[in-house]
Amino acid sequence: MGQIMAIDYGKKRTGLAVTDDFQIVASGLDTVETERLMPFLERYFSQNVVDEVVVGLPVDLRGKASEVEASILTFIERFRSVFPLVPVHRYDERFTSKMASFFISQSGKGKKARQDKGLIDKVSATLILQSYLEQKQRGLL
Question: Full-prediction pTM beyond 0.85?
């Protein structure tokens, strides 16, 4: 059994999180400049077993896709051509950035850390992945 990876794709930065090999716990992996995402993933996948990938689905309160969705779909096409054996799932990422900021503030980190967009992206990816795991374990996915 390998890891599950979550990708919180953004136009400038992308947050990444992975599970342990038993797919129980999600942990923040890194925040990568989006233009360097594919080389990062190629390196990571060459050194780790990743069974599936969860890509955040950015929608507003009315269920309408955000403007970054077109870029995400292009990324997913490219990802599938490079890693054709790795299933890609989409997962609603509504509220994850706000929740990430809240959790960072509750962790006792200073204002500078709470405004660190890279940290927010990594924590957001972790929240997406943890939520996905909980739904999967309940048999809801």
Answer: no
Per-residue pLDDT of the chain (141 residues; tens, 9 = 90+): 899 999 999 999 999 999 999 999 999 999 999 999 999 999 999 999 999 999 998 876 676 777 889 999 999 999 999 999 999 999 887 655 555 455 545 555 555 544 556 667 888 899 889 889 988 888 877
Nearest to 20 by CA among 118, 135, 130, 119: 130
Q: Which residues have C-beta within 8 Å of that of residue 64, sequence separation ≥ 6?
A: none
> Burial letters for 102-130: b for 16+ Cβ neighbours within 10 Å, e otherwise?
ebbeeeeeeeeebebeebbbbbbbbbbbb
Strands (E), 70-129: 88-92
| CA neighbor of 94 nearest in space, from 115, 123, 121, 63 | 63
86 in Cβ contact with 94 (< 8 Å)? no
Give the chain's length.
141
Exposure string of 19-56, with b = 16+ CB inside 10 Å and e = fewer, is: beeebeebebbebbebeebeebbeebbeeeebebbbbb
